[in-house]
Design brief:
Helix content: 40-55%
Structural class: alpha/beta
Number of helices: 10
Strand content: 15-25%
Strand order of the largest sheet: 1-2-4-3-5-6-7-8
Mean pLDDT: 95
Number of strands: 8
Distance between the termini: 27 Å
Order of helices and strands: EEEHEHEHEHHHHEHEHH
Length: about 270
């Protein structure tokens, strides 16, 4: 595995590259980093040149200016610059949660760079008829974060949207996992302070995405959750079938072998 940093406007992106073959960029969601894709990336590297990275302001991708609210378009520009840095050829892109939204903006604005976008449970609440209700919730979660801290706010958010909160670091876990969870806890501060309210204002360019190589995906174990609902609506709005992958919102981490098989099947079409 090769590691490096890429200077982009306002940040330095930590990234990892594994394997050889067509480029496959994996884009994480809220509070995640490249380590969450480690098991999946190792499996996919048998067939692809897999690129993973920490989003700006998270984990090892430090900001080079003051912290401020983040927007999806800036992150899509980061992904575009990272793809340019690793090669001239268009790439496959897998994005989950916020990462799926980043992938949608990347595809809409830089279509020549994307062979296929697999959009796993994007957090694009603007697609929903009750988007205002969710925006009110996100502001309440932010206020809870300011009053009571990360743990209370994260717990409230996860309960409302139907996903599990990350576990607390424990000495019973392997050291790399403990280190990753410690980073995720710090990243949760970034999510609550600078990402949640602004990222969820993102409106996908559906006109640009219709007919484009985008595959909406949801976790088969996540039916009834907000991310599954959004993926379903996205598929309907694009007029394309929804594909179910193994597991839930973090199925790529819980079931990497099965998830890699499903992803390879979609990319091989």
């Amino acid at each position: 595995m090769e590691t490096g940093t890429l200077a982009v406007p306002g940040a330095e992106l930590y990234h990892e590259v594994r394997g050889s073959g067509p480029v496959l960029l994996l884009v994480n969601g809220g509070d995640g980093d490249a380590a969450m894709f480690g098991p999946l990336a190792a499996l996919l590297a048998e067939r692809y040149r897999v690129v993973t990275y920490d989003l700006r302001g998270n984990s090892r991708s430090r900001l080079t200016g003051p912290a401020r609210e983040q927007v999806i378009g800036e992150h899509a520009d980061d992904a575009h610059l990272l793809l340019r840095a690793v090669g001239d050829e268009p790439a496959h892109v897998f994005g989950t949660s916020y990462g799926a939204m980043i992938g949608m903006d990347l595809l809409a604005r830089y279509p020549e760079r994307v062979l296929t976008l697999v959009a796993h449970e994007p957090f694009a609440v603007e697609l929903l008829p009750d988007a205002d209700r969710w925006h009110r919730l996100f502001h309440e979660v932010h206020e809870l974060y300011l009053r009571e801290g990360v743990r209370a706010a994260t717990g409230a958010l996860c309960a409302e949207i139907g996903v599990e909160a990350p576990p607390e670091p424990s000495g019973e876990l392997p050291a790399p996992v403990v280190e990753m969870l410690a980073r995720l806890r710090v990243n949760a501060e970034t999510v609550l302070a600078y990402e949640l309210r602004s990222f969820t204002q993102f409106v996908p360019n559906l006109d640009a995405l219709r007919g484009a190589p985008v595959v909406p995906v949801s976790g088969a174990d996540g039916r009834g959750t907000l991310p599954y609902r959004i993926a379903t609506v996205l598929a309907e709005r694009l007029g394309t079938p929804l594909v179910e992958f193994p597991g839930d919102h973090v199925g790529f981490l819980r079931h990497p072998v099965e998830f890699a098989e499903a992803l390879r099947a979609v990319l091989g079409r």
